[in-house]
């Protein structure tokens, strides 16, 4: 059994994610617009690595988590 077969068997009962690694997306994080790349989709939301750092208050974020309904795919 290879890794592909193993993970397909392991995740057979889970719903298929809408967002996969590498998808280019646009979203807003606490009213700050950002463009980035999807890292992964979890139960809580979509983890996004932003192209530019996002400063909210005094904290700088490179990776943010937002809900899937707030994410839009970038057009090529």
Describe, in plain words, how this protein is organized in 3D.
By secondary structure, the chain is mainly beta. The chain contains 1 helix and 5 strands, in the order αβββββ. It has one helix at 3-10; strands at 24-29, 32-41, 46-56, 59-66, 72-73. A 5-stranded antiparallel β-sheet has the order 4-3-2-1-5, with no helix packed on it. Strand 1 and strand 2 form a beta hairpin. The longest helix is centred in the first third of the chain and has 8 residues, at 3-10. The protein is elongated, with a radius of gyration of 15 Å. The mean pLDDT is 90.
Summarize, please.
This protein is mainly β and 76 residues long. The protein has one helix at 3-10; strands at residues 24-29, 32-41, 46-56, 59-66, 72-73.
Mind sketching the topology for me?
Layout: H1 3-10, E1 24-29, E2 32-41, E3 46-56, E4 59-66, E5 72-73
Sequence of secondary-structure elements:
HEEEEE
Give the beta-strand count. Answer: 5
* Tertiary shape: elongated
**Largest β sheet strand count, sense and barrel closure:** 5 strands, antiparallel
Q: Report the uncertain regions.
A: none
The span between the termini is: 37 Å
* Structural class by sheet pairing and helices: mainly beta
Quick check: average pLDDT?
Answer: 90
Q: Helical element count?
A: 1
Helix content: 10-25%
Q: What is the C-alpha radius of gyration, as a whole number of Å? A: 15 Å
Strand content: over 45%
Strand order of the largest sheet: 4-3-2-1-5
